[in-house]
Amino acid sequence: MDHILKRLLLNGAHEAPFFMPADDGGNSGGDAETNAQDKKQATDDQSPSDGEKDQQNDDATLLSDDQSQDDKQKTDDADKSEGEEDQKDDKSSDDGEKLLLTDEMRDQIANGDKKVRSLLSRYTTLPSMARALAEANRKISQGNKAPERPDPADKEAMQKYRKEMGLPESADGYKLNDSVLKRLGDDDKPMLADFTEFAHERGATPQELDLAIEWYAERQEAAMAQEIEADRTAKTKAEDDLRAEWGPEYRANLSMASRMVESIPGVGPDWNNLKLEDGRKLGNIPEFITHMAELGRREFGDPVFADSDSEAAHNSRKAELEKIRDSDIDKWDSDSSLKKELTEIYAREEKRKK
């Protein structure tokens, strides 16, 4: 029986289940032996008194669950005074004396284990030790369950719940994870403040709040990466299409379109970053850029003179053609495209003067 009690004690103090049968070759255990001895003693005593019957019934249920023990104790309270009950729990009767947990029994059960011996010193009787082990086993089997989260509309219940859970009294009491906060920008701060208030009203733990914000940060990062890649692809395609359409005048036309967009009152270059419902930026749509370049020509003249770089390129090409005309007459006469190009340059300059 000693080794069984020791094992039960260790199981109750740690995590193993409580009433585990010992592998002792078929013995029924110390509880069954005690009950059998009590019943035999009751038969030998022939006609026991009412008090002795109560004592025998109490002995037969000493290792039952907490509810049965409480019900039996309530019945005893109706028949005996508080002093008699305390005396029974200690050692007033012969049977009670047999259930005392003596130092010798503690030493035998502990068998040199100081930790077990220290735990045994907390109990004075075998029933008190058994009840403690049963309670410990009950708690282990149920686990450490958090209180149920109340309805957020019940302010008093929610306040009590926050106190039991160790939650902050206000939303600004949350200490959010720095590694997650660093992933959010200034544009996210209003949303974060609003969500933190929402989470506090509903009794969210700091861990739950961190998890939700981390999820949001990951989704934002993924969406931003996708958007950047889409913009890059659209920009590359628009540039390729316009270079093919405009040829050597690509840079001049692009400058003219930019100049026109910048001249729009109240918006300016921000027009380029405006997005359509499909996510495309206006500044990456070839049709929009071509239209702006055309409006720019009407507003500011030939795109060749849209900026200093374009004008410098114009003047350089003009000088090159004039040199061929004046110094290499054979090349000039054999290539009609040179004459045509120089004629167009003169025409632009005349148009600009007007």
As residue ranges, the low-confidence spans are 3-72, 78-96
Instruction: Tell me the number of helical segments per DSSP (H or I, 4 or more residues long).
Output: 18
Broad shape: rod-shaped
Helix content: 55-70%
Overall pLDDT confidence: 74
End-to-end gap? 118 Å
User: How much β-strand is present in the residues?
Assistant: under 5%
Q: What number of structural domains do the residues give?
A: 3
Can you count the beta strands? 0
- How would you characterize the largest beta sheet? none
Helix/strand class: mainly alpha
> N-to-C SSE series?
HHHHHHHHHHHHHHHHHH
Alpha-carbon Rg, integer: 47 Å
Question: What are its keywords?
Answer:
354 residues; 18 helices; 68% helix; 0% strand
What does the model show?
With 354 residues, this protein is mainly α. The protein has three domains: 2-142, no CATH class; 155-224, no CATH class; 314-354, no CATH class. Helices cover 68% and strands 0% of the residues. The longest helix has 41 residues, at 206-246. The termini are far apart.
